[in-house]
């Protein structure tokens, strides 16, 4: 079977579900009726001939879900010059999920939500003092009873200009009770958060294609991770070619960390949870991963105790710019009806709604319409065609005379369907010499309907001349039903506009 080029006409059905701004599909190129070849590809269609359709499928508004139903109504077959109507049009249903941006996650460490500085007014403070003297600031021990480094208290002298102003008492108090001082320490009560590095990003969505032909239903499901699929019955094959979008709303988080509340044990979580109101995206420079820097998220015991001039520094020094500070700043913005700066919720849509969501990725919804280019192949072995044929007539052809050096002339042809049924026609306009060839035009006329078509005339010479042309009308079987001979002239170029002379047939 020789290769035949066809045009597939898709009509959106009245029963289609339309979500957001989706109103139909767009044919991107002429499709072909081709031979089915058997090679090493195990997904080849089981057929002798196939229909290949290239189409663009838009998503819903803001990248949301969309569903479209369309049917293949007519084909144009160049090899036989026949415009044919499919007797039983295949119905194509395309369901497209909401589109999302997917980001890879890598667990880094846990950090405290709100580190706290504690102090105890006491006497005889020493780094190794027991709980009876320094109370909460006593050195900490791990589960094996070993002392945790850098958890000892820092002892500051009494006085009005100290970290915590305190009275030193009188000489007798010092002599009888010991030297007055304050013990300072950092502790991490309350909530902890997981910290994740954010890596490679990708686009995610799924497309379900269903084709009903006669009593047969074929179905495939595909997406960016599965771009070529074939139905079980080998009737339908689909390829995802690509997407037409600039992704202007797709952010990059390579310089950020994602923090989420810790629900269970420390370390890599088993579940990210759904408490999106507490999820935050913060620049990496706001963190200290080793805990050695003050005033950064993740600050540790060593940074607090090792800060210079601790006893003369303000209370809470070293513990600024923590997670709770950014959370409070966002809450204040929300109360003022402003978008949060750090929180995920309120800035993005459809958070972590991607399929098979786990602990190694998170996603946000794409907020722009995503047009996906699909190449769909259908087995064409059992397709039957019908077509309507009706006589027609050329009523009039007019061509204004134009100057030889102007850009082009225009031939206007008026035709009529003189039969009793609606039918397809083709119209050609051919000139004898020195005029560029014109593309054949295809159109449909209802009974007794008049149709006017225009052709642009491009002479190949700049000399004044006369031309002989023919307008030819063909029916839906591409048989000639009428012909009109006519002529027109071009004039030499003049500087003033003269009166126009009209050629006619």
Write a structural description.
The longest helix is centred in the middle third of the chain and has 13 residues, at 323-335. Strand 16 and strand 17 (236-244) form a beta hairpin. The chain is elongated, with a radius of gyration of 39 Å. It is mainly beta and 505 residues long. It has 4 helices and 31 strands. The strands form 6 sheets. Strands 1, 3, 4, 5, 16, 17 and 21 form a 7-stranded antiparallel β-sheet that branches. Strands 2, 6, 7, 8, 14, 15 and 22 form a 7-stranded antiparallel β-sheet that branches. The two termini are 43 Å apart.
SSE topology:
Elements: E1 4-6, E2 8-12, E3 26-27, E4 31-35, E5 49-58, E6 66-77, E7 82-86, E8 91-96, E9 100-112, E10 116-123, H1 131-134, E11 154-157, H2 171-177, E12 180-187, E13 192-204, E14 207-213, E15 216-222, E16 228-230, E17 236-244, E18 256-261, E19 280-283, H3 301-305, H4 323-335, E20 361-365, E21 371-379, E22 385-386, E23 392-400, E24 402-403, E25 409-417, E26 423-431, E27 441-445, E28 450-457, E29 465-474, E30 480-491, E31 502-504
Parallel strand pairs: 24-30
Antiparallel strand pairs: 1-4, 2-6, 3-5, 4-5, 5-21, 6-7, 6-8, 7-22, 8-14, 9-13, 9-20, 10-12, 11-12, 13-18, 14-15, 16-17, 17-21, 18-19, 23-25, 23-31, 25-28, 26-27, 26-29, 29-30
């Amino acid at each position: 079977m020789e290769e035949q080029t066809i045009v597939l006409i898709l009509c959106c059905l009245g029963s289609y579900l339309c979500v957001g701004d989706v109103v139909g599909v767009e044919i991107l190129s002429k499709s072909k009726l081709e031979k089915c070849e058997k090679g090493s590809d195990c997904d080849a269609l089981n057929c002798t001939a196939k229909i290949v359709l290239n189409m663009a499928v838009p998503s819903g508004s803001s990248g949301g879900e969309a569903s479209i139903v369309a049917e293949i109504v007519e084909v144009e077959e160049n090899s036989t010059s026949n415009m044919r109507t499919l007797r039983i049009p295949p119905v194509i249903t395309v369901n497209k999920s909401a589109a999302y941006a997917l980001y890879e996650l890598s667990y880094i460490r846990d950090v405290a939500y709100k580190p706290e500085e504690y102090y105890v007014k006491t006497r005889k403070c020493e780094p190794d003092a027991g709980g009876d003297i320094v109370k909460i600031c006593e050195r900490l021990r791990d589960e094996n009873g070993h002392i945790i480094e850098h958890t000892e208290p820092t002892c500051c002298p009494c006085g009005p200009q100290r970290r915590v102003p305190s009275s030193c008492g009188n000489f007798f108090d010092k002599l009888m009770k010991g030297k007055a001082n304050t013990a300072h320490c950092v502790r991490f009560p309350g909530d902890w958060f997981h910290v994740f590095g954010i890596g490679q990003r990708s686009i995610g969505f799924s497309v379900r294609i269903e084709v009903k032909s006669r009593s047969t239903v074929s179905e495939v499901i595909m997406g960016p991770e599965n771009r070529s699929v074939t139905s079980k019955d080998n009737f339908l094959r689909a390829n995802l070619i690509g997407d037409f979008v600039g992704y202007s709303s797709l952010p990059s988080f390579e310089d950020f960390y994602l923090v989420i509340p810790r629900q269970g044990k420390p370390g890599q979580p088993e579940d990210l949870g759904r408490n999106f109101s507490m999820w935050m995206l913060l620049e990496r420079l706001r963190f200290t991963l080793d805990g050695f820097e003050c005033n950064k998220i993740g600050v540790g015991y060593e940074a607090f105790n090792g800060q210079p001039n601790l006893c003369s520094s303000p209370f809470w020094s070293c513990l600024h710019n923590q997670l709770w500070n950014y959370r409070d700043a966002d809450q204040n913005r929300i109360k003022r009806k402003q978008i949060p700066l750090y929180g995920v919720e309120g800035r993005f849509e459809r958070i972590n709604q991607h399929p098979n969501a786990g602990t190694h990725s998170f996603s946000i919804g794409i907020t722009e319409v995503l047009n996906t280019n699909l190449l769909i192949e259908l087995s064409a072995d059992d397709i039957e065609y019908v077509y309507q044929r009706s006589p027609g007539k050329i009523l009039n052809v007019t061509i204004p005379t134009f100057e030889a050096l102007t850009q082009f002339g225009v031939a206007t042809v008026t035709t009529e369907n003189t039969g009793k049924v609606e039918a397809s026609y083709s119209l050609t306009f051919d000139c004898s010499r020195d005029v560029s060839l014109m593309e054949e035009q295809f159109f449909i006329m209802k009974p007794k309907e008049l149709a006017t078509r225009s052709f642009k005339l491009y002479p190949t010479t700049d000399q004044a001349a006369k031309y002989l042309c023919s307008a030819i009308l063909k029916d839906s079987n591409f048989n000639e039903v009428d012909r009109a001979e006519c002529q027109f002239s071009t004039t030499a170029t003049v500087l003033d506009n003269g009166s126009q002379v009209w050629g006619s047939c």
